[in-house]
Amino acid sequence: MSAAHLPPAPGDYDTSHSTTVRKYNRTYGLVPPAVESLDVQASRCLKQLERRPQSIDKYLYLSSLRSTNVHLFYRLVSQHIKDMAPLIYTPTVGDGCLQWSHNYVQPEGLYISYSDRGHIASVLHNWPQVNVEITVVTDGSRILGLGDLGINGMGIPVGKLSLYVACAGIRPEATLPLMLDLGTGNKSLREDPLYMGSRREKVSAQEEKEFLDELMVALTEKWPGIVIQFEDFKNPFPALETYGGKYTCFNDDIQGTGAVVLAGIISAVKRTGVPVKDQRAVFFGAGSAGVGVAKQIVEYFMREGLTEDEARRCFWLVDTKGLVTNDRGDKLAEHKIYFSRDDNAGKQYKTLEEVVDHVRPTILMGLSTIGGAFTPDMLTKMGQWNEHPIIFPLSNPSANSECTFEDALKHTNYKALFASGSPFASIEHDGKLETPGQGNNMYVFPGIGLGTILSKATTITQSMIYASATSLSTSLHPSEVSQGWLYPELARIRDVSVIVAMGVIKAAQEAGVDREQSIKSMGNEELEKWVRSKMYDPTTETQRVEEEVQGLTDPSKWGGNRGSHL
Ligand SMILES: O=C([O-])CC(=O)C(=O)O
Ligand SMILES: [Mg+2]
Fold first, then answer.
1. Which terminal CB of the chain, N or C, has fewer other CB atoms within 10 Å?
2. Gap between the Cα atoms of 481 and 484, Å rounded
3. Bridge partners, 427 (sequence order)
4. pLDDT of 453-499, one tens digit each?
5. Dihedral-angle region of residue 29 (phi above 0 means left; psi in -120 to 50 means alpha; beta otherwise)
6. 534 C-alpha to center of ligand 1: Å?
7. Strands, E, within 162-279: which ranges?
8. For residue 256, which atom of ligand 1 is closest to its CA?
9. Longest dimension (CA), the chain
10. Per-residue model confidence (pLDDT) at position 217
């Protein structure tokens, strides 16, 4: 709700507002006269969506709804999350990004260009919201599995932050989608007359580093305590290393994906009954997500009793050149060295197929962005070697998935424990509905952000990330476990995010990085109630505004999830 002297905000045009609220907001007469119930509003939106057969058109409709009637958008998304997540997030957001400059109609985030260096703070001052608590920032250089999309990657920060709001109750106005326009290595974009970013080559790593140094200072000076999520950078390791211990930040592709896959692996390993020392994991894809995921699982294997060296040796990483080994003859990227094998007796395994035959894995993990890389032959062998093969094709969007849910089941005699990065539909087999797991970081990043904001953590420690994974793995209902699910029902995501946030808060307290004193001595029940009380709920927003206008509630209580700015 805007103060009476300011122009109306997007949420003020909500057709569920009473006449009194409309008069207060000065939107009376600007929207049609009917005061609508939330159900009537939702049914209109659902009809509009139905009328649009193409997912991208549904995506565009939803984007304009978010810009013009923000609370209605979030009511719709949070109440129909299973149907809406694939439209506002992966896989449709992939098309949204590919076509971003061609479909552009409205500003949805902040763009900062390389030519703004030296003045980044002044660009931040143009952002119309005063109380930003979280930002998702990308340079567009590795959007999902689609490569360098330059500023067209803005769909990702926008989509991720929509999930923060819908799934973890961060207030919409406390979110900042941030696109760094640092040029693009994508020549066809630079030559596209409709492309809306700078037409320069991608800046050098050193130039990017200096730019990020300035950005981090500017962000935290303007919004002290802001949570910064790095997303879809081509080489995300240097930034995480430089800023991780210094700022309240994390990398979603290394740490978020790592945590969500770890949660699925904890559940899957328990189901196989195979002890961790006998697990053999082949990772196809040795980029940031692959190494991030593998490292988190190493930590789990160590907690289960293995030494670090024993744990590390359970992993075989495969990149475009084949098995990552010490004596392969090329210079390995820094992040691959930890998992590089020395037990290949001089032999090099050049393809995924050769590695799979050599290792006979219990776990096959795909982070390669190569659709269909897990062939029927590999899947069949996985089914022959294992009672319950663990098969996680995690690349996004759907077309890049290393195999489909159907193939994973069919070729393993319906024995696979499956999770993919993008959603797949359930499949009926023998009169039973088989439901795929979605090992997407959307199960953890909203809770990591909420827990960090609420605990006022100064940094996001590895123990907080690890806690997000273990909390997620304990969030399944007994009925979900008994159906063999690896992740909870997506429709329960707000409850799951509360569980994840509580785990993150407790880990922050144990690590001593928290600053929210009032919750230090709270028991579980009290903490849960407190967390829930801080969450934005679009379904009660109309009522809240009504009470605020009538002077029944204290508006300062609603400044954001923290209650007041730091
Ligand atoms: O956005 C997603 O769906 C998951 C993710 O972080 C990625 O693939 O980069
Ligand atoms: Mg990502």
1. C
2. 5
3. 434
4. 999 999 999 999 999 999 999 999 999 999 989 999 999 999 999 99
5. left
6. 27
7. 175-181, 227-230, 249-251
8. 6
9. 79
10. 98
Whole-number Cα distances in Å, 82 to 76, 77, 118, 166, 333 = 11, 9, 43, 12, 38
At residue 551, the pLDDT reads 81
Q: Is the pLDDT of residue 559 over 80?
A: no
Beta strands per DSSP E along 231-299: 249-251, 281-284
- Pocket residue to mutate for ligand 1, from 396, 442, 445, 487, most atoms within 8 A of Cβ: 396
Q: Which of 66, 113, 68 is nearest to 88 (CA)?
A: 66
Compute the mean pLDDT over every residue in the chain, rounded to the nearest whole number.
95
Asked if the model's pLDDT at residue 558 lies above 60, the reply is no
Q: For tokens 């100064």, what's the residue?
A: 458
Please state the rounded mean pLDDT for residues 202-209.
97
Residues 498-548 have pLDDT tens digits of 999 999 999 999 999 999 999 999 999 999 999 999 999 999 999 999 998
- Judge whether 89 counts as a catalytic residue: yes
Q: What is the separation, in whole angstroms, between the first and last Cα of the chain? A: 21
Q: Decide if pLDDT at 3 tops 60.
A: no
| Helix pair angle (38-50, 55-68), 10° resolution | 150
- Tell me what percent of the chain is helix, strand and coil, each rounded to the nearest 5: 50, 10, 40
**Coil, strand, or helix at residue 539?**
coil
Q: Is the CB of 396 under 6 A from ligand 1?
A: yes
ipTM of the modeled complex? 0.98
Q: Is the peptide bond prior to 8 cis by the omega test (within 30 degrees of 0)?
A: no
Q: Which residues are annotated as a binding site for (S)-malate?
A: 142, 396, 440
232 lines ligand 1 (CB under 6 A): yes
**CA separation for the pair 414, 347 (Å, rounded):** 34
Residue 566: what pLDDT?
34
Question: Phi and psi of 182, rounded to 5°?
Answer: -110, 30
Alpha-carbon dihedral sign for residues 202, 294, 98, 180:
negative
Q: Are 332 and 340 in contact (CB under 8 A)?
A: yes
Residue 556: per-residue pLDDT: 57
The pTM of the whole model exceeds 0.90 = yes
* Strands 110-113 and 437-438, sheet pairing: unpaired
Q: What is the Cα Rg of the chain in Å?
A: 24
